[in-house]
């Protein structure tokens, strides 16, 4: 099972120029992600971009559930 820190590092390295804040515990966690890459993307496209970074971990069960809130720097 991944720690919050591991999930945060994975998201930050996988999403360019992102600022990731994690909440919760290892199995059920949420991430608030602020990144300019979300500019012009729909909510669904943003979710897909984030989940693509951790899809292997979700598939293997290392990461059980991840809820995501995404913002551009301007939306913050």
Architecture blueprint of SSEs:
Elements: H1 4-14, E1 19-24, E2 28-34, H2 43-53, H3 55-60, E3 65-71
Parallel strand pairs: 2-3
Antiparallel strand pairs: 1-2
Structural features, described:
This protein is α+β, with helices and mostly antiparallel strands. Helix content is 37%, strand content 26%. The protein contains three helices and three strands; from the N terminus they run H-E-E-H-H-E. The protein has helices at 4-14, 43-53, 55-60; strands spanning 19-24, 28-34, 65-71. A three-stranded mixed sheet has the order 1-2-3, covered by helices on one side. It is globular.
Low-confidence stretches: none
Derived structural class: alpha+beta
Radius of gyration: 12 Å
Q: What about the largest sheet?
A: 3 strands, mixed
Strand order of the largest sheet: 1-2-3
Number of strands: 3
Give the oligomeric state.
Answer: single chain
Specify the helix fraction band.
25-40%
Counting DSSP H or I runs of 4 or more residues, the number of helices is 3
- Envelope shape: globular
For the terminal residues, how far apart are their CA atoms?
Answer: 31 Å
**Helix-strand pattern:** HEEHHE
The residue-averaged pLDDT reads 93
What is the strand content?
Answer: 25-35%
């Amino acid at each position: 099972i991944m720690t919050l820190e591991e999930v945060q590092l994975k998201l930050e390295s996988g999403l360019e120029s992102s600022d990731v804040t994690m909440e919760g515990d290892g199995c059920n966690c949420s991430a608030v992600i602020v990144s300019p890459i979300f500019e012009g993307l729909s909510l669904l496209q943003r979710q897909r971009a984030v989940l693509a970074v951790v899809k292997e971990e979700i598939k293997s069960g290392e990461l059980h559930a991840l809820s995501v809130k995404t913002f551009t720097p301007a939306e913050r």
